[in-house]
From TrEMBL:
Name the record gives this protein: TPR repeat-containing protein
High-level lineage: unclassified sequences, metagenomes, ecological metagenomes
Annotated source species: mine drainage metagenome
InterPro entries membership: TPR-like_helical_dom_sf, TPR_rpt
Length: 693
């Protein structure tokens, strides 16, 4: 089978070769008797048998017998290197390392023999002496004994070493001019380590074409192909190995490949072959998964029954086969809250959320357990279904049970900010910043804190966060901080901060962008300063000023006077304005105009009037509101004759003879400008109808 290595030549054959042809028959007979447990005394009469027979006894772990036999071979007048070598091997087997080393050294002094060097090489490998492993291998190769190298040992040792060791060994193999499956593995693994997938794949292809290749060789080749983006070549591998009896793991790997391509029939074929080869179905989760995809629910049930950790597969089987009751039952019967399978519940939430029984069971389970992970899964689905309040309720509960869960804190804060509840979000983030110590987590929270408040135009909150947590600044949060400084007209502060962090947290491009923004805002600030002076004068005098009057009375520098008046005259009619916010603002401003001025006609309203009536005086917002009012006044409106609320307001207007102007309607009925104009459109429609009667 492909998962097994072929054994090397037997010890007996090696011994026959080393003893010489004339002793072959006697030696084979003696070896046979020793293997049968016979140790004839007459063998001592043949000293030339002693060394190979001793070697055989050592290989059979009969150390005492080997030692006794070696003793009779001693000739003090003619010391034999094989005697010292075998004595060293026996000493090593008995744990006497010092004596073993001395004997091996004596043997090598008398004769540099390949068996001696092989033994020494194995010792160097055991002792992780990389330098001597290389040098000893070189000595053996230069003796012309390339094939005598213990390739298996050296290869396994190389797998634990770096690419430098592999490169040195490959140089030796190149010098020898020979290759076998082990040297090819050396070359393949070396190129894997050096990330040269093309060459690694080339050697892998040669290896799997050899009968001695094993499952690891095939799996390695598949991994190389996947990593290098050549996954389609896996089919070539499958074709090459089609006629061979493969290891179950290899079949399973082929199944995984076909599953990833969505070729479930091919995948199932190879998974079945894997099971026939005795491969554990616990290692083939793709098998039942493919069967489920093919709607082979009966076989999927059978395979799943042999798998211990069923995980998501059992739920998937129930869901796909329409057995939702089983899913609901599994959720309701869940008792051990310490054993929460996130993958399983993620699958249930993502695929079966629309089923009300499943959904209610999940929510009940969460309320019973309070598991934060389940809570987060549920809150996300509630968000997806636009149930923001329900999602916030769950996330707040998660916050109680897992106050340090960054993911939940961020999502809760962002959801609150979407509802305009930035104050609540800020409170949660600030509390979390005090409780959490991990820097990267606190930086993430700080980023969210500055972003939420910047987007809500709460620039003072951004500055407060900066003052409290300057150590948490990142590139992202810094952007909100600098822009908030500019919005608040803290130009000097912004410029100092930009200069201090230039080429640190601020790139050159961003540096140039900030300086351009500062320049424009400073110019704009000057323009707005004089625009405000004009608006105050106009409101005080009750009339519009021309440029000459503005230059004289508002002390506007001549060189920028035209830019100041452009602020009032060049109105961007296409500017995007949030209707809900500006309609609410229009209601507040028009009511105050009605209350604090003599203006009763909306066409008499100017930017100056709006600015001076505003509680928080912002010239840009005043101009935008003026644009919004003009835009609504120009809209052609279709009378909403079916609108009950408008009809009710119409009856009151007619009864009380209210002057038909938006200012009066807004003030009387506490409605926004948009609704006031709808009411006037209906009033105009009724008036014309009366004329036709």
């Amino acid at each position: 089978m492909l998962c097994e290595e072929k054994s090397s030549d037997s010890n007996e054959a090696n011994l026959v070769s080393s003893c010489g042809g004339k002793f072959v028959s006697e030696l084979l007979g003696s070896l046979k008797k020793i293997k049968e447990g016979v140790n004839e005394k007459s063998m001592a009469d043949f000293p030339y048998f002693n060394f190979p027979l001793t070697n055989l006894l050592i290989s059979m772990k009969k150390i005492k017998e080997a030692s006794d036999l070696l003793i009779v071979s001693t000739n003090s007048r003619n010391p034999d290197p094989y005697y010292y070598f075998l004595d060293g091997v026996i000493s090593k087997s008995l744990g006497n390392n010092n004596a073993a080393e001395k004997s091996i050294v004596k043997a090598l002094e008398l004769l540099e023999a390949v068996p001696f060097l092989k033994f020494v090489l194995s010792e160097y490998i055991s002792n992780n002496d990389k330098k001597h492993v290389i040098s000893t291998s070189e000595r053996i190769i230069k003796m012309g004994a390339f094939n005598a190298l213990p390739f298996g040992e050296i290869y396994e040792y190389s797998r634990k070493n770096d690419s430098e060791f592999s490169a040195n060994m490959i140089d030796l193999f190149d010098y020898a001019g020979n290759d076998n499956i082990y040297t090819l593995r050396f070359r393949r693994d070396h190129f894997i380590k050096t990330l040269d997938d093309e060459k690694a794949a080339l050697y892998s292809k040669q290896i799997i074409a050899m009968k001695a290749c094993n499952a690891r060789d095939v799996m390695t080749y598949l991994a190389i192909l996947k990593r290098s983006g050549k996954g389609t070549l896996i089919e070539d591998v499958i074709e090459v190995l089609a006629e061979r009896q493969l290891n179950g793991e290899v079949y399973a790997s082929f199944g995984d490949y076909y599953q990833s391509k969505g070729e479930y029939e091919n995948a199932v074929y190879h998974y079945r072959k894997g099971m026939e080869a005795g491969y554990d179905p616990n290692n083939m989760p793709g098998f039942p998964d493919c069967l489920i995809e093919l709607k082979k629910y009966s076989e999927a049930t059978d395979v799943l029954s042999r798998i211990k950790e069923k995980g998501i597969l059992e739920i998937k089987l129930f869901a796909r086969s329409g057995n939702i009751e089983k899913v609901v039952s599994l959720i309701r019967e869940k008792k051990d809250k310490t054993k929460f399978d996130e993958e399983v519940f993620s699958f249930i939430v993502l695929t079966l959320w629309k089923n009300s029984e499943v959904r209610d069971s999940l929510i009940n389970l969460y309320e019973k357990w309070g598991n934060p992970t389940l809570g987060k899964l549920i809150s996300r689905k509630l968000l997806d279904s636009k149930d923001l309040d329900g999602s916030i309720r769950i996330m707040r509960n998660v916050l109680k049970n897992a106050s340090l869960d960054i993911e939940n804190i961020v999502l809760l804060s962002e959801t609150l900010s979407k509802l305009g509840r930035e104050e609540e979000a800020t409170a949660i983030l600030r509390k979390s910043l005090k409780e959490i110590s991990k820097k990267e987590d606190t930086q993430q929270l700080f980023n969210v804190l500055t972003e939420i408040n910047y987007n809500a135009k709460l620039h003072e909150e951004v500055m407060k966060a900066f003052e409290d947590y300057p150590m948490l600044i990142t590139k992202d949060s810094l952007n909100y901080i600098i822009r908030s400084m500019i919005e608040l007209e803290f130009y000097d502060k912004a410029e100092k901060l930009i200069s201090r962090l230039h080429n640190k947290l601020i790139s050159q491009d961003r540096f140039d962008e900030y300086h351009e923004l500062l320049k424009k805002r400073e110019e704009m600030a000057e323009i707005l300063y004089f625009a405000v002076k004009i608006m105050k004068l106009e409101f005080k005098t009750g009339r519009k000023l021309d440029q000459r009057e503005a230059i004289v009375n508002a002390e506007i520098p001549v060189e920028i006077a035209h830019k100041v008046f452009e602020f009032f005259e060049d109105l961007d009619e296409n500017i995007k304005l949030p209707q809900e916010a500006y309609d609410a603002l229009s209601k507040e401003i028009l009511k105050n105009i009605r209350k604090k001025t003599n203006i009763r006609n909306i066409n008499q309203i100017t930017i100056s009037v709006i600015f001076n009536i505003m509680q928080r005086k912002d010239p840009v917002v005043a101009r935008n509101l003026f644009i919004y009012i003009r835009r609504l006044l120009r809209e052609k409106r279709i009378p909403k004759i079916e609108d009950e609320e408008l009809n009710r307001l119409l009856r009151i207007s007619l009864k009380e003879n209210i002057q038909p102007d938006p200012i009066n309607m807004v003030a009387k009925f506490d409605i926004g400008l948009n609704k006031a104009l709808d009411l006037l459109a209906l009033m105009d429609y009724v008036s014309k109808m009366n004329q036709w009667r």
